[in-house]
Write a structure and sequence with these properties.
Two copies of one chain form a homodimer.
Chain A: H1 2-10, H2 17-28, E1 33-34, H3 35-40, H4 48-61, E2 64-68, E3 74-78, E4 92-97, E5 103-110, E6 121-132, H5 134-140
Parallel strand pairs in A: 4-6
Antiparallel strand pairs in A: 1-3, 2-3, 4-5
The structure holds a DNA duplex (25 and 25 nucleotides).
Chain lengths: ~140, ~140
DNA sequence: GTAACTGCAAAATATTTGCATCCTT
DNA sequence: AAGGATGCAAATATTTTGCAGTTAC
């Protein structure tokens, strides 16, 4: 877990149990996590409030970002290196599988530039695509 | 308001005050609406619960759809004709102004096709872009 | 030692459900 | 008249806040 500690230090955060545990949950998970996922996780026995505050701290520092989902539940996922404190560059595509409900961060899929009407200035783009994921598609065959 | 009535009939809904009022709110509004926007609106003096149920009915029937936003608030907007019951085709861009908080449906901005990894099948795409809108940009100058 | 973090309690918000009454067809 | 919609009350769920005790540095 030394990586986790260094990682937190690099972001100017003090090292606490909840931050270590929750951060490593994210690094171990391929998909995004909801608050409930974290709370349910047996290895995380922290107060519900602490989880809220830890997640908010991570978002503020640019470690994780929130994902807009089709059903408007709140999901969090690790940011890429390009995210800076208070300024997210979260320009990858999120994919939600209608079948298994898993949310994927498709890091390798770049968002094509969207041409906005004159006068509109884009700061951040979120693309959420829903459908059937690789896994579920295979199963169906 | 005859249009409103015919519209509701076409979707197999009975004609009630709340449905007429809330539907015409949507047709009069250029942007998307949050539950709170509707509740706050003076012309809508319905119970909070009725608003929830009316919105849910509209979503179920394919009249409106929810918009996922970066801050995970729930927004609703009218669907295009291509939306069918239980099957939304909402492929225009939503723009949220960081300054005035207005949500725009940029109907004329088409979403460029996103190339997904093999095995992923897209059913619906939502693009939410945040930044500064035409109006606020002008003000700042 | 000091500032920051955590847990508990509780407040504030948001959403859902049950049921009696009223409205639409 | 019958089925569905509404309003009210209340149950749930979610998120935020205050504060005392604990921990990191």
């Amino acid at each position: 877990m030394e990586n986790t500690i260094d990682f937190l230090k690099n972001y100017g955060l003090s090292i606490t149990e909840s931050r270590k545990k929750i951060l490593s949950l994210f690094t171990q998970t391929k998909g995004a996590l909801a608050h409930a996922d974290i709370e349910r996780n047996a290895s995380v026995n922290f107060d519900r409030v602490t989880i809220y505050r830890t997640l908010q701290t991570f978002v503020d520092k640019g470690i994780i970002h929130t994902i807009p989902t089709a059903d408007n539940s709140v999901l969090y996922a690790l940011c890429k290196d390009t995210c800076k404190e208070g300024h997210h560059h979260d320009n990858h595509v999120h994919f939600i599988c209608d079948s298994c409900d898993t949310t994927y961060c498709l890091d390798n899929v770049t968002i094509p530039a969207v041409v906005l009407p004159e006068g509109f200035i884009a700061k951040q783009s979120d693309v959420v695509i829903s459908g059937i994921c690789k896994n579920c598609e295979v199963i169906k065959e």
